[in-house]
Amino acid sequence: MSPTPSRADLGRIVMVMPTYNESLNLEWIVGRLRAAEPDVDVLVVDDGSPDGTGRIADELAAADPAVEVLHRPGKEGLGPAYIAGFRHALAAGAEFILEMDSDFSHDPRDLPRLLEAAQTVDLAIGSRYVAGGGVTDWSLLRRVISRGGSLYASVVLGVRQRDLTGGFKCFRRAVLEAIDLDSVVAKGYVFQVEMTYRALRAGFTVREVPIVFRDRQVGESKMSAAIAVEATWQVPLLRRRIRAGESRTPSRSLA
Questions:
Q1: What does the pLDDT look like over 33-52, one tens digit per residue?
Q2: What is the pLDDT of residue 224?
Q3: Which residues have C-beta within 8 Å of that of residue 247, sequence separation ≥ 6?
Q4: Which of 77, 82, 148, 224 has its CA 20 to 30 A from that of 21?
């Protein structure tokens, strides 16, 4: 068996982290992330946070060359923020592009396992709904909304992945290059579903890595029942739009 490549052998790895009003979390999450994976660069994408998150991000970047900030003029939604970050990371030569929440819902200590999985597949997803995964600190209602939303999306889209709405992922460069980022329209809850579905439809390999998701301890959650309900009609439209617009180019994967 060949030895596992070192992080340095993988090329540049960039964590894209959108923020909006995360001034109480940002310094801590970036510090924990850099401690968990020192070879991972951090790209903070701030949508003009009025609470000073952008200023804190600039201070972190000034103190650490592995931290960079992409300032956007205002809040446009999670999807556009990630797309802007993905484009920036690709232009900077990233071979692996990660994404995660900035509020400690995703544990930076899970990064090594996610990166390890990404060495054998095209897209690794931190999953709450496979064996070994789970959630803590959630109400029963939120558990039902989240789990039900992922199950609904998987049934409608006809895929086997159990956590389509999760936002802790690692993409190989080839995946984001193959996806037409201009055609990604989802801005909120469904963005995560759309990106995974597009990767699967393009023939890329996907693996779910068990994680435990924790509710944010500081600040206000940006998730609501209304956002989840909106997804019930967005997912079927997503399926129809992607299938109608698919090109006939050959599928791609690591194999």
A1: 999 999 999 999 999 999 99
A2: 52
A3: none
A4: 148
> What was the pLDDT predicted at 216?
67
* pLDDT (0 to 100) of residue 7: 62
> Architecture of 10-245 per CATH?
Alpha-Beta Complex (3.90)
Provide φ and ψ at 145, rounded to 5°: -60, -45
Beta strand 212-214 pairing with 134-136? parallel
What is the model's pLDDT at position 218? 63
Listing DSSP states for the chain in one string gives -PPPPPGGGG--EEEEEEESS-TTTHHHHHHHHHHH-TTEEEEEEE---TTSHHHHHHHHHHH-TTEEEEE-SS---HHHHHHHHHHHHHHTT-SEEEE--SSSSS-GGGHHHHHHHHTTSSEEEEESSSTT-EEES--HHHHHHHHHHHHHHHHHHT---S-TT---EEEEHHHHHHS-GGG----STHHHHHHHHHHHHTT--EEEEE-EEE--SSS-----HHHHHHHHHHHHHHHHHHHHH---PPP----
Extents of the domains making up the chain: 10-245
Query: Rounded to an integer, what distance in angstroms lies between the CA atom of residue 78 and that of residue 237?
Result: 19
pLDDT on residue 2: 43
For Cα atoms 138, 142, 146, give the angle at the middle one, nearest 5 degrees: 110
Q: Supply the pLDDT for residue 93.
A: 97
In this prediction, residue 255 carries a pLDDT of 32
Q: Which residues in the chain show pLDDT less than 50?
A: 1-3, 247-255
